[in-house]
Amino acid sequence: MSEYPIKATFYTMSGSENGYGEVVNARTVSFSTGGRPITVSFKDAMQSQIAVNGERQYLYVRKTPKTLAVKVGDELDLPGVSPKTYEVVAIDPKLNDRRELMFLIDALEVS
User: Quick one: which of 60, 71, 72, 73 has its CA closest to 33?
Assistant: First the structure.
């Protein structure tokens, strides 16, 4: 698995209402897999009109039934890269053309 050297742990987000009618989000571990993170380049940022601040990265993972189930809004940790938690903000739309998936991930702000 030298092609995917960094461990990525994905979390599924689920919400439920409390007694006051507020939605309370819970984070449960979905699965872990190897990944290859790459920082968003200036050219990519200009083409998609996103800011380059080191908080956004691409994450390449092998295409499996588990990685195909990842949705926008799911969260993940990359302990070998950063202590921050990331959110999946986009998924590569070319699912049938490749043996791997590409996620655009963004670091979550700590509140």
Answer: 60
The burial of 9, by beta-carbon neighbours within 10 Å (0-12 exposed, 13-18 middle, 19 or more buried), is given as middle
Regions of the chain with pLDDT less than 70? 1-2, 40-54, 94-97, 110-111
Give the pLDDT confidence of 49-68 residue by residue, as tens digits: 554 455 788 899 998 999 99
Cα gap 80→93, rounded to integer Å: 27
Give the residue extent of every domain in the chain: 6-107
What architecture is domain 6-107? Beta Barrel (2.40)
Q: Which two tokens stand for residue 23?
A: 């939605």
Q: Is the pTM of this model over 0.85?
A: no
Buried b (16+ CB within 10 A) or exposed e, 93-105: eeeeeeeebbbbb
